[in-house]
Amino acid sequence: MLRICSSGVTRWFSIIMSDYTSRIMDQVRAKNGHETEFLQAVQEVLATISPVLAAQPKYEANAILERIVEPERVITFRVPWMDDKGNYQVNRGYRVEFNSAIGPYKGGLRFHPSVNLGILKFLGFEQVFKNSLTTLAMGGGKGGADFDPKGKSDNEVMRFCQSFMSELQRHIGPDTDVPAGDIGVGGREIGYMFGQYKRLRNEFTGVLTGKARNWGGSLIRPEATGYGTVYFAQNMLATKGEDFVGKVCTVSGSGNVAQYTVEKLNELGAKPVTLSDSAGFIHDPAGIDAEKLAWVMDLKNVRRGRISEYAKQFPGATFYAGQRPWGITCDCAFPSATQNEINGAEATTLIKNGCGLVAEGANMPTDLEGIDVYLESKILYGPAKAANAGGVATSGLEMAQNSQRLNWTREEVDAKLKSIMKNIHDNAQSHAREYSADSKGDYTNYVAGSNMAGFVKVADSMIDQGLV
Ligand code: GLU
Fold first, then answer.
1. What φ, ψ does residue 149 adopt, rounded to 5°?
2. Which of 106, 116, 432, 437 is an S-S bond match for 138, by CB 3.0 to 4.6 Å?
3. Does 142 participate in catalysis according to the annotation?
4. pTM metric for this prediction
């Protein structure tokens, strides 16, 4: 199944395409050649689902791949706003409504200067499969803008959010499309957007998730992506009879996902030693304990500062400017920053240094060459669609509470999150066992397993609903 290419890296992805998946990949390339992240996300899925396509000819007969790679609707719009100096500013807003076969479109909004249609299509495509894995009734979507909240005042962010929602409100609704946060969109931005939606529509509904507790938010939603990723990793470790006690963990990012990953790792007896942002990473060999994490949360969420300040505050720590943490020796790695933050060489370094588990809190943080390295090494690798699905799953729980007009306790939501992550793990594992030739003994190819499990539910639902 594996082949070594000239760089010494196994080319797992290039050799398992069937005629059907190759033909669709060629078409996707021809139509979307410049959308490199979208092509990467599609290739990862198509390269892993051939076994179910071969076993079930109905998918090709119903042109499921042709349809599933095409968003149902793409909306782009102008977002004009005024900065604090009175200057007019214009950004581009988007919502990609990718697939509604199993529920209303659901997925976050990203505000970051790198946002473009290709990035949002990759995120929307991944969201379709991820949401399917959660077992909840959510289709897939994603949106955002090329707006950079970094360095903006609260008033500027508010004016931007109000302008963004003035257009987005006509396309979304609690039974149509339910956005949430992603990079650059947290509680503050969700609040401003919710306020504007309510003013324009005169409706108090669960149209966004990630709301504050006082006005319809769910307990555990802020923690859910990070906690869920660690729960998923715990399930992977259990297949080897291991736990987190004493394990050294590298974590990238320093936003919501990274923060709650560190919190849960500490609770389970692991030692998280790194955090990062776009300027570099900090390494604290003594461990980022609960007290230091509280300081980081204040730095990032209240003072909106930079992670380099950690090394000034805690003398045992070092800041490495312009670098990523994958050269630090660890047992487990939690990429929790952004897409393509681990390449083939970095994946090789991680494994050479003894890393035996990678669980992806960010979306598509490892490039295809890096994934090849994980699969060849047969480490425990939890791909993003499965490992970080706890965030959107808890958004699904927020939607359920909003519909019931009830609030569940912290313990109830956490217990549901834990059981959803175990179901995702077991479902990926059983699909890998059934269809993926390399999943034998105590090894599971979770990429193949989760892509197939996510795909089958959406594809069957599309067939049930006819040619729409
Ligand atoms: N942006 C998150 C994700 O990538 C959460 C989406 C949501 O809660 O709708 O899954």
1. -70, -15
2. 106
3. yes
4. 0.96
